[in-house]
Amino acid sequence: MAQPPPDVEGDDCLPAYRHLFCPDLLRDKVAFITGGGSGIGFRIAEIFMRIQVPARGTGERSRIALGGVRTSRPLQAARKLAGATGRRCLPLSMDVRAPPAVMAAVDQALKEFGRIDILINCAAGNFLCPAGALSFNAFKTV
Predict the structure, then answer these.
(1) C-alpha dist (Å) from residue 82 to 23, 77, 132
(2) What is the pTM for the complete model shown?
(3) Among 17, 31, 80, 114, which is least packed, fewest CB within 10 Å?
């Protein structure tokens, strides 16, 4: 029987990563990842940070903006990712259901990096129930 991946129990960084893509694939790119504090968004942020190289002519080591609903989640994720990759990402607190919060987070990322090239939306409101049993507000949230 196959063993589960080492990160199944939590959002921990991979013990090692072999590049599947060209190491400079994301050169000079800025990624904005919502829901990056955990789950799939966390892993995408980690892989992006591992394959990113510094922007030409800068000392920058990473250009990732990581958004999450609770301030603690993206901040904790950014610390884990920095420890594992030696790179920095910008943790942002935002709720994708609140347009003013999204606009403020985007403005903060633009102020820090000057642009956003890649948007990855992993933020979601999830309810474990049949779709037909969702209330209108629950459906709207998802």
Answers:
(1) 18, 8, 42
(2) 0.75
(3) 114
